[in-house]
Amino acid sequence: MDDFHDSVAPQEPGTVMRKRRKGIYVLPNLFTLAALFGGFYAVVMAMNGRFDQAAVGVFCAMVLDSLDGRVARMTNTQSAFGEQMDSLADMVSFGAAPALIAYEWALKGLGRWGWMAAFVYCACAALRLARFNVNTGVVDKRYFQGLPSPAAAALMAGFIWLMTDAGVAGPEVAWPMFALALFAGLTMVTNVPFYSFKDIKMKKSVPFITIVMIAVGIALINVHPPTVLFGLFVLYALSGYVIYVWRRAKGQRTSVISTSTDEPEERGLHE
Questions:
Q1: Using CB atoms within 10 A as the burial measure, which of 1, 207, 223, 231 is most buried?
Q2: Contact by Cβ (8 Å): 98, 55
Q3: Is the per-residue pLDDT at 259 higher than 80?
Q4: Residue 195 phi, psi dihedral angles, 5° rounding
Q5: What is the CATH number of the domain that holds 56?
Q6: Overall domain count for the chain
Q7: Would residue 102 count as lying in a domain?
Q8: Phi and psi of 178, rounded to 5°?
Q9: Between 255 and 158, the higher pLDDT residue
Q10: Which residue, among 187, 69, 71, 79, has the nearest Cα to 127 in the 3D structure?
Q11: pTM for the whole thing?
């Protein structure tokens, strides 16, 4: 995270200036490292044939990833280091891990088609994260430009978890997994707007019914986590296209770019 420096008193002439000590903030980076471990754990579980646990690892990484930024903002410990660390962890947990798990579980039997689908997903996750980093200052904060990588990973992991829980072997649904990997990957790099939920203020008071609905939601997830979580993220993945079509039908702007740039080489990133 941000460099911090020891406070140094004014030096007398002829004295040697002590070198400033650099460091990083611990708390938000602990959450980022924990999210990274979730992705690593998922890959290890997949290598050992524990695909249900691999899917759980991806979902745990997603929860932890949603917390590190909030913790940094609440404690005023945001920094360039933390942003870069978060992007690298996301690439492992939501890019490489889901692609490798899907390949090991179902896509391996498709030969070249299988690893092609896995690579397309992984490459699109990298492109999505790179575009997010360069567009941070110009995108409308209420929306994501393309499906966020944690949601794409949740689609992949949720399908694997659901099928594994139902006793369905990966090779039996290799082609549906192939289609889902391409859909999730390509949706990440579209310009379709997805609601980000960032305009929800956690510190503001809410009606009592809101807390009741949250409790009901938690209870519903616990009825059957694989089905409910996968269903929720399928709806979210489709919601962006609904918003896009609705805006086009109303003649409204579909782009989530709030400010334009005059740099010709950057225009393609914002269209």
A1: 1
A2: no
A3: no
A4: -60, 135
A5: 1.20.120.1760
A6: 1
A7: yes
A8: -60, -50
A9: 158
A10: 187
A11: 0.81
